[in-house]
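REVIEWER CHECKLIST
Item 1: Sequence provided? yes
Item 2: Single chain? yes
Item 3: Sequence as submitted:
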Amino acid sequence: MSDLDPATLVQDGRVHRTVYTDPAIFAQEMDRIFGQAWVYVGHDSQVPKPGDFITLTIGRQPVVMARHADNKVYVIYNRCGHRGAKVCIENQGHADLFRCTYHGWTFKTDGTLDAVSMPRGYAASFDTSDPNLGMGQLPRVETYRGFVFASLFADGPDLTTHLGHARDSIDELVDKAPDGAVDLTGGVHKYIFRGNWKLQMENTVDMYHVPFSHESTLRRDGRQFSRQRGDESGSDIATSGAAADRWEQRIAWASKETGHTYTGHQPAAEHKANNDPVYQEYLSSLTALHGGEKTQEVLNPKRHNTWFFPNMSLQALNPHVRIIRPLTVDRTEIWVYPIRFCGAPDAMNVDIIKQLNLTHSAASLIQTDDLENFTRVQGGVAAENSDWVWFARGIDTDAPDNQGGVVNKGTVELPQRAQYAAWARYMAG
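Item 4: Structure as written out by the authors:
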């Protein structure tokens, strides 16, 4: 299929297999999706002091997120304004000034030019105030409760409008911190899989695969290992009977406009009596912040996984942020950050990191299942017996809600349909 018209590639309940395999489509995605949408960059806890920075890419654009002397967080292009060399090569660090190693030009941490080396060699008309000589700031950068988003495109809605109903997922998560803030400096898992970036996007909010792909994590009684401190019951993911019925009652919400979507919480997310002393210390701190009624609401999260289109997910049950970095049409890098709750006992935050090692590291009990599936899909869609990949489960029961989105229940494929509706909208320009 050579026609790149999104109307031909995304249809009701199905997408064309070339969205996973065609390098030309991938190139358009980098320009039309990652080049225009609000893209998650990082968290302000990663750059706590002026001069702190991290490096990353937005689509194909190398960028730096840095905290400047004015205490604001800036996202700037990782490019010297002189001869175009990449200025920052470390993944993270601290610098009072950024210095290009090629010819020694220096830049402030907001991207503006600081000084030109050996300036007497330039004509008197050479204007060092020309913004084109700096590293260059991205057109739009905004932060919501510590989560930093940026856009390479100057026009479009503000971040709060763009996040819409999905931003409640951030609120739910941050409200679990006794100090009212979270921290993403507990390390990061990085790994690459041989598959298209959208495979991870689809999978994160796919409840249909859980009882089958992750069957190996079940105990004999049908429950997964515990993923909450002090809770030994685990999560029942049986495929039949009352337990399966509970899964079918979990909500799925999606915005076909933005591509943001979330799935309702798992059975294990329900707050249970817990006498663990560390947990009791946490509960006491949280109650002091919110009061008893709000604390119970916070401890019974409404959402399990939330996907912020195009590149970031939040998980509440095993708290973490997951970022996708598309490398090529069939090669994707994943960054997974544990979320630590500021003001919570240290032992609890250590447990979060340990649990993430079990669930979503490259050698974990759960993520390895998904990575195997991604590899199999990427290989399978090369087969020419059928041109279509299907997302039709529950399509006849999708219903609009009063939040500007669509809702359904259980193991439906509503989230994927919404993601591809947004994909098609961006790809159409």
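Item 5: Key structural point noted by reviewer: Residues 236-243 have pLDDT under 50 and may be disordered.
Item 6: Recommendation: ____
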